Amino acid sequence: MGKSNEEHVQERNLDREGVMKVQKCKEHWVIGMCIIAFYLLGPVTGKEICYNRLGCFSDDPPWAGIPGRLLTGLPDSPEHMNISFSLYTRETGNNSQVISAINSSTIQNSYFSSRRKTSFIIHGFGSTGKKGWVVEMCLLLLEVENMNCIAVDWKEGAKGTYVTAVNNIRVIGAEVAYFIKTLQKIFKYSPSEIHLIGHSLGAHTAGEAGRRTQGIRRITGLDPAGPFFEGTPPEVRLDPSDARFVDVIHSNAAHLPAVGLGMYNTTGHLDFYPNGGTVMPGCNDLIPQMKRSDFEALIADATVIGGCHHSRSHEFYFESILYPTGFIGYPCETYKSFESGDCFPCPQEGCPMMGHYADRFPAKLKRINQKYFLNTAADPPFTSWRQRVFIKLSGVKRTRGDINLVFHDTEGNTKEYQITSGVLSQDQIYTKYLDVEINPKLIKKVEFLWIKTPFTPLWSRLGADTVNIIHGGDGHRSTFCGHETVTYGAPQLLTPC
Fold first, then answer.
1. Do 325 and 430 sit in the same domain of this protein?
2. Is 190 considered catalytic here?
3. Which of 39, 267, 333, 411 has its CA 20 to 30 A from that of 219?
4. Catalytic: which of 96, 127, 204, 223?
5. Active site residue 337
6. Which UniProt keywords apply (predicted)?
């Protein structure tokens, strides 16, 4: 039998009731999700602020409201940050001239020369461009090249909380880009003559300036800041597309379980990871092991940890200006592979130099995200040259102890390195990868030294029959021969075979 009219009406009423219940359920679910999103993400994005000359800045994604950037927002005004540009040239000596793109006559009346290349040095969080490493870098660059060096100061925007400084670098980057456009307008100056060098947040500032200016010759990122940048889209952080050539030094990378102030992921054409890129020898400040969220909370409160490791990046760059061959980077997938010698010596195309002379590497633009590893010394000038050493012994057939090599250079410096320890046998060739702090070209002589154990007979004599050294930079092989044996503690002079 068919349904009556009354039954059809009841059925329709039930349907409407069900739909209304479902709708109410959806509404409550949406409201609940909005509340959760508000507490997780903060206020809804969509705000915008505009500044004369520089344009508008919004807090839409990816600038805020995405994983890793939940606390970020809008930048302060350029006036609030009191941004300044100080020009150093060979004519200014140790002094500088304050120049301004807003008052372009200050540039025209300065020692700025359109016939010279220009470097901009940009500091990071909690720092300044008026003194310290930024000024020292400019002065050293001028010693090796007649150029324009401009120190960018944004101290007022870099103090306070780290999150505020993160927001502010967008305006600083826009100001640098505006300055470059002014140089183009006044002097017809090409961006291909410009090199931006930035440390920490300054590295991402350089990236922002490069994103706004087509054709920048080079950007060097010195341990680009990690918190609120690691894993974010390219437009937020330093990226290979920001300049014709981007090279990066990672010295305090956040590599689990440790955390750091820098980025671990590659973010340039050539990315260098000295000593693995996280912990630097010679630095005593501790890098804690904690959850990433806890670390970001510390950073948000402007608590700086790992400062020595973080600063090593600009110290390495500084020394690389004076020691072009002392920072050879080896192409490798991991630091562990590098340490085990899997990436030794340099391939046929050669290896780049970390730091100032990285742009001399012929294959620098072959691809992006190229990883290079090296070890450095613990103290200035931090240089080291990687070698593979082979030693064949002579003397007693079998004994125990330590065997070392001592390198002497032409300036009277000596460095001693242990090759092996334990059982020593004539039947075995002992191999060791050494990162020697003495330039191989300056080595005057090599000595063999052995130290006995308490149970080694006093009359035992040992020597190096041959020592073969392969130099990692060019694959050159040096061979030294020993013509005698020595008692423990007495050096054996080795001569070229």
1. no
2. no
3. 333
4. 223
5. no
6. Disulfide bond, Lipid degradation, Lipid metabolism, Membrane, Secreted, Transmembrane, Transmembrane helix
